[in-house]
Amino acid sequence: MLWQYTRRDTKVLLVAVLCTFSAYGFLIGQGWTSRTTDVAITANVVGVFAGVDANAENTLLAQLQEREHALEMREAMAVDRVASGTDDTTLFIVTIVGLALLGLILLNFYLDSKRRGALR
């Protein structure tokens, strides 16, 4: 029965603390969303094959396309690695700030109770 024995200021502080922690929970929840990639299923792809005799230009073009594809894959892996690192950093910072705020709130309650005991 916290609401019966508290003052209005304490109620406002409690509501502010609850709002702060719910905001941090929302931030943390956004960082844990799953990432999906679009992958074409071969059953849904319609293909037509047309053959051209191999010559120097065709082979060079095929090699160039393979290299470009390999570079795109490496770039995508690097972007995923960087993105996952920032999510972990953000989660760490949010957790530290939340714990610091909780410590300050508890310190405030302790000092208030000590001051009230000294006044009585």
How would you describe the overall organization of this protein?
This protein has a domain at 56-112. It is 73% helix and 0% strand. Mean pLDDT is 76; it is low at 35-39. The protein has 120 residues and is mostly helical.
The class by helix and strand makeup works out as mainly alpha
Our estimate of the beta-strand percent is under 5%
Instruction: Note the total helix count.
Output: 2
Query: What is the H-and-E element order?
Result: HH
Instruction: Show unreliable segments.
Output: 35-39
Shape: rod-shaped
What do the pLDDT scores average to?
76
Q: How many β strands by DSSP?
A: 0
The major beta sheet can be summarized as: none
Spatial gap, N to C terminus: 24 Å
Radius of gyration: 29 Å
Q: Please bin the fraction of helical residues.
A: over 70%
How do the strands and helices of this protein lay out in sequence?
Elements lengths: L7 H24 L24 H64 L1
Helix pairs in contact: 1-2
Please tag this protein with its features.
120 residues, single chain, mainly alpha
Short description:
The chain has 120 residues and is mostly helical. The chain is 73% helix and 0% strand.
